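Entry:
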Amino acid sequence: MFAYVKYEDKYKAILPISLVKTFSPKSDDDFDRTKKVQAFWRSDDGDIQGYYPAFVCALAGDLDTMRLKLKTMREPFPRIIDADEREEVPLRKRESEEPNGENVFVVELQKIIEKKEKENKSLKKQLREANALNGRLTRALLDKIEVARATAERQEGQVIAEFTLPSSLDAGTGLPKEMVEDVCDADMDGDATCLLPGSVVSDCSASIGIEVTHLEDYNGTFAPCDEQQQPAPAAAEPEAVALTTVPDDLYQVFGGQIKIGHNTFMPLDKWQYIMRNTKDGKFCLELARHFWPAAEAAKRSLTGQACRSISTDHVKLQATPEKVDMMKGCLQQFIENHVEPGRPAEVRLAAVRRYLSNFFTEAGRAGRRGHGTK
């Protein structure tokens, strides 16, 4: 049986099926045109010979039948390679017939190199796509940061009223301002003291530095004694706070974090953003939000004591003293970088307690409003 084959280099030939490796058809139609086989080839001068990749295009029992099939296929009759030609060729000319071990190793290496080159191209393509996506995300993030920054600057003048107006409680006495004014207007005479409960008289007398001795009357009211009033030690908190010395390692940057307290750090970009504020109240508000989240701030107050003007059953925790001290230190750094003529730094630093008190008050109101809407 003869086979009409086409080699990969477009050469064509007719040869016995014995010159085709691992090819044993049972009939003229028992072959696959798309399957690659190893077919023998020998040049006219006999210098080149061996088995090369080829495709079987037709099979025939004899040459006459093959000639008719090629005529039907409109193919020219190619060269015929006899089986005897392979035997006539010297053994030294069969170098390409069977590849040796070295050639097989080289072929395997070439296949590995081609595979790695394809993987390299695929990885380069993925890297280009990732870089393009990273660029788009970076630009979108920068745009959002600019929008947020512009919004914050527009709202800078619309700070919550509690952070701009003076506190409703007098900083020296801890009592409502109206009550303190009534006591002062009465010049602390005997009649005025009888109008106040004993606890209020005690608090007021301690705040103004005068000790008032009183006795309980038969009807349960308090009346002043005839003993001479003696001045008591001043208990009021000073209005100005002295500036402290900053340790050497405080407010230093360590790996993108700035140290703001003992074993306490803040991201440098967040610190720089907060330091861009121009008002002390706005600075303290944003810094307090960093130390106390909204849910935690609603449960705390500056001193942890019960409210003296409003009766409530809710007991709040005291603000952590260490965090309050860190707030003072950060505000001192802000004051040093934002000097305001006519406002002493000590007075500005003393206002940190008022800012914190207002912050916790507003956080508690927001928490109650949120709880009421559920």
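The longest strand covers residues 49-60.
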